[in-house]
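Q: I have 158 residues here and want to know how they pack in 3D. Can you give me a structure?
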Amino acid sequence: MKKEDKQRFTLRIAQANATELVVILYEMLLCYLEEAEGALALEDKTAFQEALRKSRGCLNELLASLHLEYEPAPTLQRLYLFCIRRLARAGQRCESGFLEEIKRVIIPLHDAYQKIAEQNGAGPVMGNSQTIYAGLTYGRNSLTENMTDQGANRGMFA
């Protein structure tokens, strides 16, 4: 993942509500799957395994966030476990077909959660996160982001 992508995801995470966090995890997972496919095309096994590890991390986080006492969490759990098994197969056989299977599962889930996120009016999960204003100042070749309210409890306490 490029530095710009990491910065973009970090900014979005700091300002996201619970549903948007799930959407962001899906997007990060899809980004890492693309990286894995690119590494496989370049025959870079180290980068391929690293992208799979990061993809697995996203899936593990999605699994950990499920509340299994509510529907459709048990179904999502089975889908995430299926994707984790596909990642393991992709790592064993170094084949991109398994990654395509994962995408066929994740893309519709991403689209559905994105529609739900648009309707969710809840505030950000991180109540004390820094406010970031983009575009107030410009660097030599880039846009500089300024952060305000740089208190000691940045997002840790309500």
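Q: Anything worth noting?
A: Residues 18-41 form the longest helix (24 residues). The first strand starts at residue 131 and ends at 138.
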